[in-house]
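Lab manual, section 2.4: Encoding a predicted structure.

Procedure: take the sequence of the chain (252 residues), apply the prediction step described in section 2.3, and record the output as structure tokens. A sample record is shown.
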Amino acid sequence: MFSADNLSILIPAHRKCVVRFSFAHFFFSVAFQSTLFFLILCSCNLTAKAQFLDSIQSSLQNKPSFIGGFATKSTFIGGFRSPIFTAKAGLDFDNRIRFGVGVSWLKLGAFDIGKDNTPFYLDKIILTLSGIDTIHPSLQFRYINLFVEYVYYNSSKWQFSIPIKFGVGDSRYKYIVNGDKFIENKHAIILYEPAVSGQYKILPWFGLGLDVGYRIMLVSNNKIGSKFNSPVYDIKVLIFWGELYKKIIKPN
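Recorded output:
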């Protein structure tokens, strides 16, 4: 059982967050269980499998609705909290199965003098016309992702789903000297991000949601060396714009 008694988080003065065991294990367990659940659905007995496939096929025959938006997910890189921004768009078939594509990237904070900025910024000594100088190459981590989400429970108040994401992109360090851009340690990355998602409607047009999962690097950038495998979580405030529109514009 997951409880506060086995949660150990160490935060030194330089704000590095070391998640020692339960926190990361909990998120990895959630991601593993979501993947296992999806695989079981796909490989269960013929009757259940046929019902599952019939449900998806029936949903795909409906006219899809457009979905899109912008989200920020909390992750960790090398033990440091590292928000990932995502802009995505896709199609929703009968509120049962969703497909789409997105673009995700690491959001860096400003370089903090006197603090340990690794792995987000490096200290690099270069020789310029005016002498020796120290610059700070910044980490870039970005990828295009394809996602599929299966809604396995849906009621008037609750919804639970399994979103799965595959991403392809690269990570690198970038710096600018005299107006010229330089790239170092660039390498392709491939990631897999299973999760579970739940939401609750407090009002017909307003709700709260929670996504928990784990980012698994299938191909990582060994040149950078930071640990990109990470828990992923997102606490969401949900506005159901269609319901809000009907309440405000068309109250009857």
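Check your result against the sample. The two ends are 48 Å apart (CA to CA).
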